[in-house]
Specification:
7-stranded antiparallel sheet, PspAB-like, 198 residues, 32% helix, alpha+beta
């Protein structure tokens, strides 16, 4: 950062650090202790929709890589598009296999980045719920690719309502585990993200 940047108050953007995703399993332990949420086994990577043969080849490589895992449970890796035109590559593991889900998310991000699609990457998420309570809230820990930070997102399926108080509580509890995004205006709702509605 130069002197002119300092004088004008400009800051250098944080470089993406995909290894931050590997902090999710320890954050999940803290999250369960602090708020009672446990992993659902669902996770996804969001990116601006890309057309063309190069992306299709990358997509097929990612699917082949992740689907080759003999221990994978549930449906294979899925590519979907939301109502806003963004694409989601989603993965599902059994709830106790969060480290493997994190590996999937890291592999998807890394593959897209390595094949020149890094600028299209937006975020990744791992979904959580309260399985032992009558609670319809879903919680996701969302990693903002371009910021290198996380934020908690708590929604009620089908209602497009958030629990901001719980989000702030979770953010505070996880500050020792994750790099939390300080600008809450960047805590986007992601209403229909995979894993947040099922």
């Amino acid at each position: 950062m130069g002197l002119l940047d300092i004088l004008l108050g400009r800051t250098k953007p944080v470089a993406p650090d995909l290894d931050q995703l590997f902090a999710l399993p320890s954050a999940a332990i803290t999250l369960q202790a602090a708020a009672g949420f446990t992993p659902t086994g669902a996770g996804a990577v969001c990116f601006a929709t890309v057309e063309g043969a190069a992306f299709e080849q990358t997509h097929q490589e990612i699917r082949a890589l992740l689907d080759a895992d003999a221990e994978r449970e549930g449906p294979p890796v899925a590519l979907t598009q939301d109502d806003y035109g963004y694409s989601w590559l989603s993965s599902r593991r059994s709830p106790e296999r969060l480290p493997e889900l994190v590996n999937d998310l890291h592999a998807v991000n890394s593959s897209l980045e390595a094949n020149g699609f890094g600028p299209q990457l937006l975020c990744s998420l791992a979904a959580f719920h309260r399985a032992d309570q009558d609670d319809d809230r879903r919680l996701a820990l969302v990693y903002l690719y371009k910021r290198g930070t996380f934020y908690p997102l708590c929604t009620r399926p089908g209602h497009q309502r958030r629990d901001n108080a719980l989000e702030l509580q979770v953010a505070s509890a996880l500050e020792g585990d994750l790099r939390i995004e300080k600008d809450t205006a960047r805590w986007f709702p992601l209403w229909d993200a995979p894993g947040m509605t099922d």
